[in-house]
Amino acid sequence: MKRIVVFLASILMVFMVQAQNQQQKENPGNAPTFNSSKYETVNDMFNDVWQLRTEEILGKVVVEFMVTPEGELKDYKVKNGISPSIDEDVIAVLQKTNGHWNPGTANGIPVEMQKEISIVFQCQATCNRITKANCYLCRGCKCLYKKNNPKRALKNFEKGLALLPNDETLLAMQEMCYNKLAYAN
Questions:
Q1: Could you report the per-residue pLDDT of 117-172, keeping only the tens digit for each?
Q2: Concatenated DSSP letters for the chain?
Q3: Is residue 146 situated within a structural domain?
Q4: Is 51 found in the same domain as 116?
Q5: What's the pTM?
């Protein structure tokens, strides 16, 4: 008798699990998505807006907001910001995307859902020059101090100076190489 009860209970559980799995497959939920004819992603919109700015911005802003069943945005909350002015600008740009969002769905019905996006700001030309110049400085120092090769170090310092001609550190290291080469001869 116990075996029959255990057997029937296990069959009942298998049917319940299959029914739940089938129900989940039939009624998937979808997160809200950005939909614009001009921009492919929200980040593209930010890139377009921030190309007009002159200052270099570096960092990441994380904003959380709600997307209504109508595709409107509300309840903006900055979870990680760069500065208050940049955070306000990010929210202002997001507000311009009202109506360009497909709402999230649950069981095929549009529902209000929370969405979080990250906007990454990277350095443009100025930061790239500084980064490259610093790489040449590091290479030059390595050649000068570790490998004791002032000629090769001088080449690296000169490449760095081509990017940042008034950098005092690169100028000092260049002078040091000239002095070492003069004493070597």
A1: 888 776 555 567 788 888 899 999 999 999 999 999 999 999 888 888 888 999 99
A2: -HHHHHHHHHHHHHHHHHHHHHHHHHS--B--EE--SS-SSHHHHHHHHHTT--S---EEEEEEEEE-TTS-EEEEEEEE-S-HHHHHHHHHHHHTTTT-EEPEEETTEEE-EEEEEEEEE---HHHHHHHHHHHHHHHHHIIIIIS--HHHHHHHHHHHHHHSTT-HHHHHHHHHHHHHHHHH-
A3: yes
A4: yes
A5: 0.50
Range of the domain at 177: 126-184
How long is the chain? 185
Verify that 71 and 111 share a domain, yes or no.
yes
Q: Are residues 137 and 118 in the same domain?
A: no
